[in-house]
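Fill in residues.
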């Protein structure tokens, strides 16, 4: 008897058949009320530990086909330790093979970031006298959008904003934020830093999408990073209230944290103040080997003949220019950056190097070091 489950937080799977551990056939579901299809997260329980062969049979019909080339899935027995397992994309199917040493195994597109983990971190931050937590709104699924404020209340301070996980499947972005927040908790020079810089951090822009296992959209099927010019209070309260806070407090440096499915590199794209943005990029590359300057959206290094025309922006009213970084660059005299971290292991000098949630946290720490050394 084999049991496949996806009915837990961030779970995402449809079961076609699972009679034998060596022949498990599953589908990746669409986001709620949307057409994106990419995020998967499920558990497989067998009667005894054995080799599991899993086919995600509709991987060839997902939103980012280039995401599967060279990609390896994550697995865990205890939801604490996650590791990559053998994965291959062939004949339109993503095939995972794993010699399980326990009866129950979790599989995910990237290491999930639980809602409770954010709450626990916020409780820790609340104990710092430099931190103020503001609940900007409750979402339709009753989750909180929190704004973490670190400030010495000086009006002329430089204002640095970081937001993560507008796209809920891009859980790596929240691991980066965690690395940064832990750096803040351990920062001996925090008082000195805050005499010059105010920080505003939204650790999870899309908790509803995270909860229900969406890849790109919130519960209403809205791609949050396409509605920054006219966020609707009812359909996209997440963006509406963060926009209000941005307009209220102002911004000099804005960093929007995402994950990229296809490119096996971590990179930044700059808009607004290009000179300051490029300086941040160069410093980050000099302190962290997992971040680089060669590959990005202008030079993705991918074989374009294999690219596909599919897009997550399948809604006819979708406005590609209504991204958070565009909104900031157009409305403020600021540097506006998007940080993309990979779903895949990283390519470096022709070799493949590990990339997981621990790497994300190290990158978050480096980002803190770079911003505070400005
Ligand atoms: Zn994204």
């Amino acid at each position: 008897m084999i049991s496949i489950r996806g009915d837990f937080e961030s779970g995402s799977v449809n079961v076609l058949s699972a009679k034998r551990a060596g022949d498990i056939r599953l589908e990746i579901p669409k986001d709620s009320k949307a057409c994106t299809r990419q995020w998967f997260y499920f558990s497989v329980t067998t009667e005894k530990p054995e080799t599991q062969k899993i086919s995600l049979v509709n991987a060839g019909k997902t939103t980012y086909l280039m995401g599967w080339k060279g990609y390896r899935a994550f697995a865990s027995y205890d939801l604490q330790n996650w590791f990559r397992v053998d994965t291959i994309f062939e004949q339109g199917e993503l095939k995972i093979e794993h010699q399980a040493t326990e009866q129950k195994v979790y599989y995910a597109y990237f290491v999930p970031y639980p809602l409770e983990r954010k709450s626990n971190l916020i409780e820790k931050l609340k104990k710092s006298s430099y931190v103020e937590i503001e609940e900007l709104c409750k979402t339709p699924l009753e989750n909180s959008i929190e704004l973490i404020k670190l400030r010495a209340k000086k009006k002329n301070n430089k204002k640095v904003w970081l937001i993560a996980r507008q796209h809920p499947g891009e859980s790596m972005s929240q691991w980066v934020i965690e690395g940064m927040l832990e750096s803040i908790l351990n920062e001996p020079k925090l008082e000195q830093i805050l005499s010059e810089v105010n920080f505003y951090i939204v650790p999870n822009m899309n908790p509803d999408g995270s909860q229900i296992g969406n890849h790109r959209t919130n519960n209403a099927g809205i791609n949050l990073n396409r509605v920054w010019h006219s966020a609707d209070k009812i359909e996209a309260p997440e963006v509406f209230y963060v926009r209000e806070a941005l307009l209220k407090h102002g911004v000099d440096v804005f960093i929007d944290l995402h994950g990229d499915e296809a490119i096996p590199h971590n990179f930044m794209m700059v808009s607004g103040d290009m000179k300051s943005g490029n300086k941040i990029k160069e410093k980050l590359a000099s302190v962290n080997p997992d971040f680089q300057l060669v590959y990005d959206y202008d030079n993705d290094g991918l074989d374009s003949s294999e690219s596909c025309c599919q897009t997550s922006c399948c809604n006819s009213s979708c406005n590609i220019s209504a991204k958070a970084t565009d909104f900031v660059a157009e409305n403020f005299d600021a540097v506006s950056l998007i940080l993309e971290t990979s779903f895949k292991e990283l390519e470096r000098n022709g070799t493949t190097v590990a990339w997981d949630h621990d790497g994300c946290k190290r990158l978050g720490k480096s980002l803190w070091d770079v911003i505070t050394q400005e």
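The pocket of zinc ion is lined by residues 167, 170, 258 (CB under 6 Å).
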